Amino acid sequence: MSDWLSKLLRRVLDSKLGEFLELSETNNDGFSFENVGVKQSALSKLGLPVRCVYGRASKLAITIPWFNLFHGKYSIEIESLHLLVVPSSSVKYDEEKELKEANEAKQKRLRDTERAKEAAEAAAEADPENKQPDSFVQRIVAVFLKNLEVSIKRVHIRYEDKQPGNRYPFAAGVTLDSVFVTTKKSDNDKDENIKIFEKHLELNSLAVYWRPKAYLFSEEAVYSDAYVVFKLFDSAIGS
Question: How many Å apart are CA 92 and CA 98, to the nearest integer?
Answer without folding.
Answer: 11
